[in-house]
Design goal:
Layout (H helix, E strand, L loop, with lengths): L9 E5 L2 H4 L7 H6 L17 H14 L4 E5 L2 H4 L8 H16 L3 E7 L5 H4 L9 H16 L5 E6 L1 H9 L12 H25 L5 E6 L2 E4 L4 H15 L8 H8 L3 E4 L3 E6 L9 E5 L16 H10 L5 E5 L7 H20 L4 E7 L18 E3 L6 E3 L1 H12 L7
Parallel strand pairs: 1-2, 1-11, 2-3, 3-4, 4-5, 5-7, 6-8, 7-10, 10-11
Antiparallel strand pairs: 8-9, 12-13
Helix pairs in contact: 7-9, 8-9, 12-13, 13-14
The structure holds beta-D-glucopyranose.
């Protein structure tokens, strides 16, 4: 099998404004972090990586690693600090950010919502409120009009499924509610509505720009060959995939409002039917025995990428891996993880899946939400005191693969 990737393949990393920019005070996450006990080790995002001021330095490092694309998010709460009021200075800032990427020959994939919302929006019920999708729209229009000429690809919403679960079921994300199934379904459905509205708004102005969303795709495997364990795995998959439509309609929804399928894949679990767990829908989920467990406590296997991509490929659209990575302090593992995952991407391409790009999560170690700063996903380390950046060996390996558009660079 060839180890080369298709011409024009996008090699990038992925990030999110709140996790790197710093001093992002006007959003629900900032408020949430100030509540004791919400974030591991009492961390807060605080100055984060000060990427807001150091983006040029960070983008220069991306070029040093031969990246030709970068996924980043535009912070809604900076652009629209109160409803209907837009901050020209912040729009200018993001024009500079995107312009800098362009000048370096790095294509921006822009996410419009990556887990953070303005405090004013959250105080009205956030994404659980009626009409929330429409409240998002003025921001979208502003970005489309004022920044659209600099955007390469659009990613409307980051992981609607994971966001809804973390904010309304596990309580790890603001507003920190637990077990509110009804709200969780409302939120997912409002986020998909927001995606549809954003899709139309973008396409009206920039018909040729590819638009999609990033779908969090974990793999659920049956714990045995028994039919009831297969049922447990299927139900888990459907529950997490949770598009607000019957599974049969998924293809039509994707056809109408996605130019590509964006896949964020990190981990997998086993599922077994368990009559003793009525509150868990009679399903016991656990890490896959024999597979390595990341610092997030989740089992992972590079071979699962091929499975996930083959499934995404069935939707008949180009596929971008919008996120993939591993939380570990062991950079040798990250090196192996990257090359093994990419050989599985290559295998999926050989299977006929139209994979167009890979965005590794993430370039710099950053604020990992409720897990704080001790989760290291980066190709580049950041000293928490001086904020000095240091490229890790994994970054160098990824850079060599990107430069040669081939895995032969690491044979
Ligand atoms: C999120 C990122 C997060 C990453 C690692 C993804 O689900 O989009 O913001 O940092 O997972 O946990």
């Amino acid at each position: 099998m060839s180890t080369d990737f298709p011409d024009g393949f996008l090699w990038g990393t992925s990030s999110a404004a709140h996790q790197v920019e710093g001093d992002n005070r006007n959003c629900d996450w900032w408020d949430f972090e100030q509540q004791p006990g919400r974030i591991a080790n009492g961390d807060t995002s605080a100055v984060a990586n000060d990427h807001y001021h150091r983006y040029r330095e960070d983008f220069a490092l991306l070029r040093e690693l031969n990246q030709n694309a970068h996924r980043l998010s535009i912070e809604w709460s900076r652009i629209e600090p109160s409803p209907g009021e837009f901050d020209a200075h912040q729009i200018r800032h993001y024009r500079d950010v995107l312009g800098d990427l362009r000048e370096r020959g790095v294509q921006p994939m822009v996410t419009l919502h990556h887990f953070t919302s303005p405090s004013w929006f959250a105080s009205k019920g956030g994404w659980s409120a009626k009409g929330s999708a429409y409240a998002f729209l003025p921001f979208v229009h502003r970005v489309v009009d004022e920044l659209g000429d600099l955007v390469g690809l659009w990613c409307t919403i980051n992981e609607p499924n994971l966001y809804a679960v973390n904010a309304w079921i596990s309580g790890e994300f603001p507003p920190g509610h637990k077990g509110d199934l009804a709200a969780m379904y409302r939120v997912t459905s409002n986020l998909h509505k927001a995606h549809e509205l954003a899709y139309s708004a973008i396409k009206r102005r920039w018909p040729d720009a590819p638009v999609g969303l990033s779908h969090h795709k974990l793999l659920f495997l049956p714990a045995s060959e028994k039919r009831r364990d297969h049922w447990a795995a299927q139900v888990s998959q459907l529950a997490l995939d949770r598009w607000p439509v019957a599974p049969g309609m998924l293809r039509r929804v994707v056809e109408a409002t996605c130019d590509y399928v964006g896949i964020a894949h990190y981990w997998g679990q086993m599922c077994a039917f368990d009559p003793k767990l009525p509150n868990e829908q009679f399903i016991r989920r656990f890490n896959v025995p024999g597979r390595p467990v990341t610092d997030m406590g989740l089992s992972t296997d590079p071979a699962w990428m091929r499975v996930v991509l083959n499934e995404a490929g069935k939707l008949g659209k180009p596929v971008y891996i919008t996120e993939n990575g591993v939380a570990t302090h062991d950079d040798e593992w990250r090196c192996r993880y990257i090359t093994e995952t990419l050989s599985n991407v290559r295998l999926a391409i050989g299977d006929g899946v139209d994979v167009r790009g890979y965005f590794h999560w993430t370039n710099t170690d950053n604020f990992e939400w409720s897990r704080g700063y001790n989760m290291h996903f980066g190709l580049i380390g950041v000293d928490r005191k001086s904020l000095e950046r240091t490229i890790k060996p994994s970054g160098r390996i990824y850079g060599r693969i990107a430069a040669s558009n081939s895995l032969s660079a690491v044979d």
